[in-house]
Structure formats: structure tokens, C-alpha cells
Design a protein that fits this description.
Layout: H1 2-33, H2 38-57, H3 71-89, H4 108-121, H5 125-136, H6 141-148, H7 152-170, H8 173-179
Helix pairs in contact: 1-2, 1-3, 2-3, 4-8, 5-7, 6-7
């Protein structure tokens, strides 16, 4: 019985190491996916980590046929898939808030950041996911296609269209903010 407990403790320690090393990056990516909704981003990270813990306990990471080579990247994949699944289930894109946020100071960088977050928030979830995976996480077309379970050609098409939508949404505001 002591031998089984020791193995589980070692697995738990490895999992905690993964969590400690990747939670910040997961959270930043989740914030972009959720257009700055920090509460929803926290929920996404928690969902991804809980799903990963179940996999971890099933010994998918210790060997055998179902070994996952890169647990950190797979955790991001799980998070993006959870985001897309939840977006399909959502009946409305509206979110209740207590009060409207005050605009940030007149710092150009924060204004640019808020403008980009707002534009990302107005994009369809799959377009948002493609842009975050390709340009924030710097993933290849093939990696993005694998995460989103579509072909590489579909990712190229969606990326092109998503960038065009983003440029349309930003309009002249991006040029104004970048000029400051």
C-alpha cells in the first residue's frame, strides 16, 4: 500500500510543478480568449487544469500508448477546446456587470491594449481563438489546426478572414493610437 501512495505522491508533485510553471501563461492566454473577462479566464484555466489532473491521474503521462509528449502544450489545447465548447453552448454574448469600467489613463499603450481587447471581444469565438493561438501563443498553422480540430487550409482561411475582420473593427482607431 505504501508503494502506491508514493507513486501517487510523485505524480501529484509533477502535476503541481506543471501548474506552478504554466498557470500564468494559461491565464494570460485565457484573458485574451475571453476579451479581458478575468473571471471567465480564471474559470477556463481552472477547467483546463482540472481536466489535466484527471488525465494525469490516469497515468497518460507516465508511458504507454497514450503518452502525451508535451503536457504544457496539451494543457493549452485543453483550455482552447473548453473555451470553444463553452462558446457553442452560450445562449448570449452579453455579460452582466455592476458598473461600466472607467477608461484607463491616457497612456497610449493601455489605450491600445483596451482597443485591441474590445475588438477581440466583438469577434466570433473561433476567429478569436485562431488569432490568440497564431499570434499570441506563436503556434504554427499545423499546431493551431490540431488544437481546433480542423485542416491547415481552414486555419489559413480563418486567419486571413479574422485579421480582415479585426482590421475592420479597429478602423482608424488603431492608426490613431499607434501614432501617439
Amino acid at each position: 500500500m505504501g508503494w502506491i501512495g508514493t507513486g501517487r505522491e510523485a505524480k501529484d508533485a509533477e502535476f503541481l510543478e506543471l501548474v506552478a510553471g504554466r498557470t500564468g501563461h494559461l491565464y494570460r492566454s485565457a484573458c485574451l480568449l475571453t476579451s479581458g473577462d478575468t473571471h471567465y479566464a480564471e474559470d477556463l484555466v481552472q477547467e483546463a487544469l482540472s481536466r489535466m489532473y484527471v488525465l494525469w491521474r490516469r497515468s497518460a503521462f507516465t508511458g504507454g500508448r497514450s503518452r502525451i509528449e508535451n503536457p504544457a502544450a496539451y494543457t493549452h489545447t485543453v483550455m482552447v477546446r473548453a473555451f470553444l465548447a463553452q462558446q457553442r453552448r452560450r445562449s448570449s454574448g452579453e455579460r452582466p456587470t455592476e458598473a461600466l469600467p472607467e477608461p484607463a489613463g491616457q497612456d497610449a499603450d493601455s489605450s491600445l491594449r483596451l482597443t485591441l481587447l474590445d475588438a477581440l471581444g466583438r469577434m466570433p469565438p473561433k476567429d478569436r481563438a485562431v488569432l490568440v493561438l497564431r499570434y499570441w501563443e506563436d503556434r504554427s498553422v499545423e499546431e493551431t489546426a490540431d488544437v481546433m480540430r480542423v485542416s491547415s487550409g481552414a486555419i489559413r482561411t480563418r486567419t486571413t478572414r479574422a485579421l480582415a475582420r479585426l482590421r475592420t473593427l479597429l478602423g482608424e482607431s488603431l492608426a490613431e493610437l499607434a501614432a501617439r
